[in-house]
Every structure is written in structure tokens, then in C-alpha cells.
């Protein structure tokens, strides 16, 4: 009964989140929309007087932020590459 648990233990301890982080260097932009949506949700939950339209306002704010980040990335890319 205890032997299967002991054979599983080294593989469970192999990944240490803060010492061996996952390699997301090429896919970092996929983590941006959930982060922006979460920040927008918390912000709107604190600022709205009632929570009737929270999902619409959160989606709108998240879209604004993502569009502005995209425009800033394009502008900075143009500055770095062409100047």
C-alpha cells in the first residue's frame, strides 16, 4: 500500500514552482488577457455602485486595456526598429 506512494513522491517533488519556473518565454503574451481581465474585474467590482453590469463593464475595460497595450507595442516596435 505504501510502496506506490513512495514511487510517486520523487516525481511530485521534481517541480518546484519558485525555484524551477515553467518556461513561458515564447508564450508570455497568452498570459496577458487573463491577467488584464482579472485586474479589470477587481477594479470594476470596487468602483461600481451596483454589480448589475459588472461583466459588460469588465469586458469593455479589458478590451480597452488590451487594445492600448497592443498599440503601445506596435509603436515601440516601430521606434526600436526604424529609429
In words, what does this structure look like?
- This protein is mainly α and 83 residues long.
- The chain has one domain.
- It has helices at 2-12, 32-47, 54-82.
- The longest helix is centred in the last third of the chain and has 29 residues, at 54-82.
- The model has no long low-confidence stretch (mean pLDDT 89).
Shape: flat
- What is the residue-mean pLDDT, rounded to a whole number? 89
State the total count of DSSP E strands: 0
**Structural class, judged by helices and strands?**
mainly alpha
Order of helices and strands: HHH
Q: Ranges with pLDDT <50 over ≥5 residues?
A: none
The N- and C-terminal alpha carbons lie at a distance of: 67 Å
Largest sheet: none
Strand composition percent = under 5%
Number of helices: 3
Quick summary:
The chain has 83 residues and is mostly helical. It has helices spanning 2-12, 32-47, 54-82.
Which structural traits does this protein have?
83 residues; 67% helix
SSE order and pairing:
Elements: H1 2-12, H2 32-47, H3 54-82
Amino acid at each position: 500500500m505504501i510502496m506506490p506512494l513512495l514511487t510517486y513522491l520523487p516525481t511530485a517533488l521534481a517541480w518546484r514552482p519558485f525555484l524551477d519556473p515553467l518556461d513561458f518565454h515564447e508564450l508570455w503574451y497568452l498570459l496577458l488577457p487573463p491577467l488584464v481581465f482579472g485586474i479589470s474585474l477587481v477594479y470594476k467590482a470596487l468602483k461600481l455602485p451596483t454589480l448589475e453590469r459588472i461583466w459588460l463593464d469588465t469586458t469593455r475595460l479589458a478590451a480597452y486595456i488590451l487594445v492600448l497595450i497592443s498599440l503601445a507595442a506596435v509603436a515601440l516596435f516601430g521606434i526600436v526598429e526604424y529609429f
